[in-house]
Write a structure and sequence with these properties.
The chain has 179 residues and is mostly helical. It contains seven helices and no strands.
Length: 179
């Protein structure tokens, strides 16, 4: 074969930058096997909640649900996790699941105003859905439950208009004009 493996003719002198001698140290072996990335450290509860709130801000509901599931696995009594889970359920139009989540949040933290308002809004929505030209007892029950939640929210932060607005709507739906 007239050429070497590197493509040079056999009579070409190959220059070496490093002089070759017998007392040179051995070249270390290089591991060319694929490297497995290190296992990521599991996220703590605070990190999971922060990421869930960030995901909710961009309406990535599946990511929120995944993160909340992990958070509740760490602490099943975390009120904020239940509250965020309720938000996901509500956004997915699963009102009964949202009611359960908001109720769990309130059980863990009765002073969480947003859970009361959200729970009230779920009952209000169910009442509006069941209202079909006539006032059924079920519709009134939903509106009463919504009014109770809005009343609880007014006790927590008495000078916020949001819960008073909802409360006024429920009183009007219940024809309780004196309130």
């Amino acid at each position: 074969d007239p050429f070497r493996m590197d493509g040079t003719p056999p009579d070409t002198k190959i220059l070496s930058i490093v002089p070759i001698s017998d007392d040179m140290p051995e070249t270390p072996e290089v591991n060319l096997a694929p490297q497995v990335p290190p296992t990521p450290k599991p996220l703590g509860l605070d990190d999971l909640m922060a990421r869930a709130e960030d995901a909710l801000a961009i309406n990535d509901l599946s990511e929120v649900q995944s993160l909340i599931g992990q958070a509740l696995a760490l602490d099943g009594n975390h009120y904020k996790a239940h509250y965020l889970q309720g938000r996901v359920h509500f956004d997915n139009r699963r009102l009964n699941d949202a009611i359960q989540s908001y109720s769990a949040a309130i059980k863990q933290n009765p002073g969480h105003k947003e859970s009361h308002i959200s729970l009230g809004f779920c009952y209000q929505t169910l009442g509006e859905k069941s209202l079909q030209g006539e006032d059924s007892e079920q519709t009134k029950a939903y509106f009463r439950k919504a009014a109770l939640e809005y009343e609880e929210a007014t006790k927590i932060i008495p000078d916020n208009f949001e819960e008073y607005y909802g409360l006024g709507l429920m009183y009007a739906r219940l024809r309780n004009y004196a309130e």
